[in-house]
Design a protein that fits this description.
This protein is mainly β and 323 residues long. It folds into 2 domains: 8-221, Sandwich (Jelly Rolls), CATH 2.60.120; 244-322, Sandwich (Jelly Rolls). Helices cover 14% and strands 40% of the residues. The chain has 7 helices and 21 strands. It has helices at 21-24, 61-68, 70-73, 75-81, 106-113, 143-151, 217-221; strands at 8-9, 11-19, 35-41, 43-44, 47-48, 50-51, 87-94, 100-102, 120-127, 132-137, 159-163, 169-172, 178-180, 184-191, 197-200, 244-248, 253-266, 274-286, 291-295, 299-302, 308-322. A hairpin with a 4-residue loop joins strand 18 (274-286) and strand 19.
């Protein structure tokens, strides 16, 4: 059975801060309230997305990788990760702010949680007027100074707050304190991990549980990177019909394509799967044997063995992601 471009059934996650944009802006289909995350491609234990299209419908990525190995994910990826898929792709809708949080490195996550670390990036798809993100600290602190702010409930005062709009991109390496602010809808690309250390949560009570959410400040303290960056936002070009570099890391590479017309791609030199995340418009993805259309808010995985791809659209923006 030949491999083909794969769509997945997303997993919808209730979050205390979730809203309605996944449904109203991205046309996701669910009935629950306060859905904050749509997990588009996931191999997280207990949260595996299943293939939605074609002959492999109903199978997980893990099951397909077991059979097709490097033909699906790339020989390099398979040699490193085996049947574990290295990336988790999400859309996130923050009606109210997310908690202030930090993620541990690969080494600490492995030691403490038998998990990958969580290096991630955000691409803002829509932001209400005045919406902002938190990324990093606004001034360099010692652990003692930080702890004092934490105990005095003034930790927000030493965070770097940045107003955002559609197209803004941020890389969030492990150790960098961060939070998505109210009114932001974004695409998130991250390592396959669900390990988060929550630092501050606005003293909120979860309506479902009637309790405040757990904080992890002891775990977070030796993970936090207190260095201050000159610029937390990723600068990039947006030339038409080419792959413009966004964030390239040891954990994933991401580009953005602004497509009008037809773009031919040849991935023969990339020993990896490729993921397209449609962040605007409608796109036709054509291989030698298949044509699949994806719209804003949809994601598709191109197996490694499919090298020649034709992308066509009147107007679309996509994120191109690979290992």
């Amino acid at each position: 059975m030949k491999l083909y471009p794969l769509k997945f059934n997303p997993l919808f996650k209730y979050r205390i801060w979730g809203g309605e944009k996944l449904k109203k802006t991205l046309n996701k289909e669910y009935q629950e309230e306060n859905i904050g995350e749509s997990w588009e491609i996931s191999d997280v234990k207990g949260d595996k997305t299943l293939i939605a299209n074609g002959e492999f419908a109903g199978l997980s990525l893990r099951e397909l990788t077991k059979k097709y190995r490097g033909d699906l994910v790339g020989d390099l990826v398979y040699d490193i990760f085996g049947e574990e898929f290295p990336l988790l792709i999400k859309f996130i809708d923050a009606k109210t702010p997310l908690s202030i949080q930090v993620h541990p490195s690969n080494e600490i996550a492995k030691e403490r949680h038998n998990s990958f670390g969580k290096n991630e990036m955000w691409y803002v798809m829509q932001a209400d007027k005045g919406a902002e993100l938190i990324a990093g600290f606004s001034s360099e602190l010692t652990k003692e100074e930080y702890t004092k702010h934490l105990n005095n409930n003034t930790v927000l005062d030493v965070m770097h707050h940045e107003k955002v709009e559609s197209g803004d991109t941020f890389y969030i390496p492990t150790g960098r304190v961060h939070a998505i602010g109210a009114g932001v809808l974004l695409a998130e690309i991250q390592q396959t991990s669900d390990v988060t250390y929550r630092i501050y949560d606005y003293d909120r009570v979860d309506a479902k549980t009637g309790a405040k959410r757990e904080l992890h400040n002891d775990l977070a303290l030796d993970v936090l990177d207190f260095k201050v960056q000159d610029n937390y936002k990723t600068e990039y070009k947006l030339d038409k019909n080419v792959s413009n570099k966004l964030v390239h890391t040891p954990y994933f590479k991401s580009n953005i394509l602004d497509i009008e017309g037809v773009v031919k791609k040849d991935y023969a030199k990339i020993d990896s799967f490729v993921i397209y995340i449609c962040v605007d418009g409608v796109l036709a993805v054509e291989t030698e044997e298949d044509t699949i259309v994806i719209k804003k808010g949809e994601t598709i995985l191109i197996p490694n063995e499919l090298n020649k791809i034709s992308l066509s659209s009147n107007k679309a923006k996509i994120l191109e992601v690979y290992y």
